[in-house]
Amino acid sequence: MADSLRNEKPFSGPDEGLVFRFFLWHVPRSVSTALATCLGQLPDIEVWHEPYSMCNMNRFIEPAFLADNPKMTPVKLWFKRAFTSEITLEEKSEMGNSVDHRCFRYSWVRQQLEEPRPTKKFVFVKDVSTALYHGNFDELLPRTRFRHTFLIRHPIPTLLAWKRLMMRTVLELPLDTPQSDVDIISDVPCFTTLHFYEELYSLWNYAKRKGDEKPLVIDSDDLIRDPEVILSKYCKALDLPWDKKYLNWASAIHPRKAWRGSYQVLKGFDFRNAFESATFDVNLATKREDFEMLTPDLQKCVREALPFYEEMYKSRITLD
């Protein structure tokens, strides 16, 4: 990042007071895409799908990235294939608000999020906090005023679902591969799985230091159990319009057509369940697996995550 961007104070853009901008930061596998689809129905809203995550993943295919780690060889190949998959002109036309993954660099995203939005009332950015783990928040985040909000989920179902996803996609393992055959920390070294919750917690504290005394926190289990209560409180706290009809998005514009993001991610990555859903799936709030049943790598990740999750959980929007 250029020195001229360091230590700059937030500034008011030309649409200050006319456009409300907010982030939803989350850990992976936390029902975030369904929540973004729900909130994407707000009038005159611009939705960004994980722009910082795309910047981070672009780093994975750089030759120098973890070049001395042999575990990265198959991982780099998977991401290179994913990012070079053919996008037809018809698909590009359908995803008219998206661009090629190569556009996504941290400085570009920052600039894009600072641009005036004369035709919008809201700018909403959904992203994973792990995408910022290597940098200084002040250097990476936009200088225009954004509210930072957070989505958490208990570490056991989150990390278990994350491991299953990595085994099925990036590692390309057969579905019957035992979880004990994989160490999610060392076998997919590009992701900081051990520190997912610490990174979210750090960003939560950053938001508090920047003046938001109590940043909004949603727990995904609460959201799934009673989305109307949670989201009506969330929207009221942010002064966003709320309507119960947003809880069903069957007739909403498809995210691929409406959102801003990367062609390659919105087309090829595993958002099928969220994109094809119409409501929050109550089955996702199921009984958690016992800690003792987890593989050692997941146990280590859960132990690391729990203190950060529990501290944020105390500040969550409650159902009562």
Automatic annotation (TrEMBL):
<keyword id="KW-0032">Aminotransferase</keyword>
<keyword id="KW-0808">Transferase</keyword>
<protein>
    <submittedName>
        <fullName>Branched-chain-amino-acid aminotransferase-like protein 2</fullName>
    </submittedName>
</protein>
<dbReference type="GO" id="GO:0008483">
    <property type="term" value="F:transaminase activity"/>
</dbReference>
<dbReference type="InterPro" id="IPR027417">
    <property type="entry name" value="P-loop_NTPase"/>
</dbReference>
<dbReference type="Pfam" id="PF13469">
    <property type="entry name" value="Sulfotransfer_3"/>
</dbReference>
